[in-house]
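Quarterly update from the structural biology core.
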Amino acid sequence: MIKINQLDLFSGIGGFHLGFEKAGYEVQSYFSEVDKYAIDVYSNNFKDAKYVGSVTDVCGGELPKIDVITFGSPCQDFSLAGKRKGMGGDRSSLITEAIRLISECRPSLFVWENVKGTFSSNNGEDFWAIIQAFANIGGYRLEWQLLNTKWFLPQNRERIYLVGYLTDGSRGQVFPIGEDNKQANELQRQQANTCTLTTRYEAGGNGSYIAERKLNAQEIRVNSATKRGYELATEGDSVNLSVPTSNTRRGRVGKGVAQTLDTQCNQAVIKDKIRRLTPIECERLQGFPDDWTKFGNEGEISDTQRYKMCGNAVTVDVVKAVAENCKFIFNG
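Predicted structure, tokenized:
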């Protein structure tokens, strides 16, 4: 058992902590977060974790020896779906606080997760500026790879994982992690409370609809800006419900996998009818145990907040794979 003190920045609901535990580490975490619901859920699931406040208030000199720093810094300004302000955005620039704490704590390992859009933000200049900042700390070997949750769980979610570790240059390496790690190839399903056939999925109160099934047909036609005007979905496929009235939206159907979870859960699954994913299904698609986000120390959490927290989380199974490949760093 490898015992580590972890500084878990932008910790969310504890995906990094849980991933390292599942990889066989004994984790004592010091976690930093500002969302009150995520703090509540984290504290409820990790009773011995120590809350250290906002990342801007954390001082390395006031912490015990930190072995691992993990962070999935706010990614909205790097996201392909966002306004792409890059490092100039207020939220994404918080990565500089993580860099500061790496310099102050000098952990054996740090792990950073972020969206694929980080590669292309400001024509790649932002990513290389971050790499340069990590390199300037001194003493760390840097490795990174684009990993996809669908190699492990049925969700198409591409994320950059970057690790930095202290090394004398004579030990192993963390990446690559290959697609042969995948553990599932079809959507995890949960029996719906009702199994009545729905012929149309209504997009709203205006009478428009996003999909329909012909009588006795095995496939559902999902409106899409393709040449034929629709995509075909069958049992077990996912359907993206965002911007339902768009005339240009395509790629709505995930064949046997969920598309990337967002904070509003704009996804459904076909299980005799088209229905929205449940909070438990979102937890499963991110590798968390059932009802991980249902309760905090202060009581029950709303579904709205549960969807948001799952959409913001790191995938536990991906973190586990990375953590397993990092063990050589601590084994001498």
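The first helix runs from residue 15 to 22.
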